[in-house]
Write a structure and sequence with these properties.
CATH class: Alpha Beta
Number of strands: 11
Radius of gyration: 16 Å
Oligomer: single chain
Number of domains: 1
Strand content: 35-45%
Distance between the termini: 12 Å
CATH topology: Nucleoside Triphosphate Pyrophosphohydrolase
CATH architecture: Alpha-Beta Complex
Length: 186
């Protein structure tokens, strides 16, 4: 899939309106789903969280974090991407956002989808990010690469998503956000 088709498919489907995040007892966070346009292919960029972090150490995620008071979710996603991987906000074309993604750990995540050109280099924040890697978008668009299963967790049955790729295991909220992106592109 080329960037023009990605844009068209993404924009043909209505995304969640506005930038306001409903207030709730949950913590509010925003992530950037970075889609890199190489001209002949699209790649999704992921971060691997540092192992010393208190929450979700070593897990695969998108650049993102808490929405600060008075900050819009898009601003938070871009700010966190710049802090974590050195991606300047003006290098990203935001296409829109996907529906809120609640987590079992008490967060509501606002996922923003953005297109960007290949970067010459990344500036990783070692306090937060152990590494980055890319996966072809076409891998996730194939239904056989997207798995869902139910797991008893904290007294409830949770639906979990998983999307293995080579030696990487993408699961949880990150995989659920990717699943929603794939449904939007279908």
């Amino acid at each position: 899939m080329l960037a023009s088709e990605f844009r068209q498919r993404f924009l043909l489907h209505p995304t969640a309106a506005g930038d306001a995040v409903p207030s709730s007892d949950q913590h509010q966070a925003a992530v950037l789903v970075p889609v890199i346009d190489y001209g002949d292919r699209l790649q999704v960029l992921f971060t691997q969280r540092a192992l010393h972090l208190r929450h979700h150490p070593g897990q695969i995620s998108f650049p993102g974090g808490r929405i600060e008071p008075g900050e819009q979710s898009a601003e938070a996603a871009l700010r966190e991407a710049e802090e974590e991987i050195g991606l300047t906000p003006n290098a990203v074309t935001l296409l829109g956002r996907l529906p809120l993604q609640p987590t079992s750990t008490g967060f509501n995540i606002v996922p923003w989808v953005g297109l960007l050109a290949p970067q010459q280099r990344w500036l990783l924040q070692p306090a937060e990010v152990a590494g980055i890697f890319e996966v072809p978008l076409t891998h996730f668009l194939q239904q056989e690469n997207r798995h869902q299963f139910n797991l008893p967790l904290r007294g409830k049955v949770q639906q979990l998503h998983a999307m293995p790729y080579q030696d990487k295991f993408i699961w949880g909220a990150t995989a659920a956000i990717l699943h929603r992106l794939c449904l939007q592109l279908a």
